[in-house]
Every structure is written in C-alpha cells, then in structure tokens.
C-alpha cells in the first residue's frame, strides 16, 4: 500500500492546476532535474495497521518543497497549497482506502545560494480493498 499511496499522492498533487502553476515539477523521488520550485517525496515508511477485517498500513510520508529566492512567503504559499490538496485526497483509492490523513509536522530551512526547503510530514492510515 505504501507504493500505491505514493503514486496516488503524486498524481493527486500533479492534477491540481493551481499547484501546477506554482511549481516546475512534482516527482515521486529526488533529485529532480527541474529548476526550483519543485516537490518530491523525500521519504516514506510503513508499519502494520491491520484490523480484524483486513490488512492495513500506517504510512508516514515526507514531502520536500525546494524553492529559490529570498521571499519566504512564496515558499509558504506553495506549502499551504500542498497541505490543502492533501487534505482533499479522496479516501477510496485503487486497491486501498485512506482511513486517516494527519499532518504531523513541517520544517523550513534556508540553504546556500538563496535556496529554501520545506519538509511536510504526514501520517496515513490505510486499509486494503
């Protein structure tokens, strides 16, 4: 379910026309050849979350937004749009159902050469079916 969630989430983010205008690329894995701003899944991990009725997974996933510039507000606006989009991910997906989507934390940092990065971490509880 972890791989299926990763694929579904990237497709969902790519399908957003507003987010598409804000970033150059949305990818499942980095490094990305596109120039910033871009988004990629930085890491994910899953653990058993099965129930009596079927197999399930707790999936923790981190998205990284990389941006360039001195304006932190621009990066914050993109991060806010990512959060809005994830909050509207349909529960029923191909082969599994997202039972819970929970924002865990974010971290922002300034990097050399006027680069900025925002890491957004989420927890998804999923059930097969």
Structure description:
The chain is an alpha+beta fold and 129 residues long. The protein has a single domain, classed as STM4215-like, CATH 3.30.2000. The protein is 27% helix and 46% strand. It is built from three helices and six strands. A six-stranded mixed β-sheet has the order 1-2-3-6-5-4. The longest helix has 16 residues, at 72-87. It is elongated, with a radius of gyration of 15 Å. The model has no long low-confidence stretch (mean pLDDT 94).
Tags for this entry?
single chain; 129 residues; alpha+beta; STM4215-like; six-stranded mixed beta sheet; 27% helix; elongated
Second rung of CATH, namely the architecture: 2-Layer Sandwich
Globally, the shape reads: elongated
The CATH topology name reads: STM4215-like
Biggest sheet features: 6 strands, mixed
Order of strands across the main sheet: 1-2-3-6-5-4
- What is the number of independent domains? 1
Which CATH first-tier class would you pick?
A: Alpha Beta
> Structural class of the secondary elements?
alpha+beta
Write down the secondary-structure element order.
HHEEEHEEE
Spans where pLDDT lies below 50 across 5 or more residues: none
Query: How many helices does DSSP assign?
Result: 3
Taking all residues together, what is the mean pLDDT? 94
Proportion in β-strands = over 45%
Distance between the termini: 10 Å
As a percent range, the share of helical residues equals 25-40%
What is the alpha-carbon Rg in Å? Answer: 15 Å
The total strand number stands at: 6
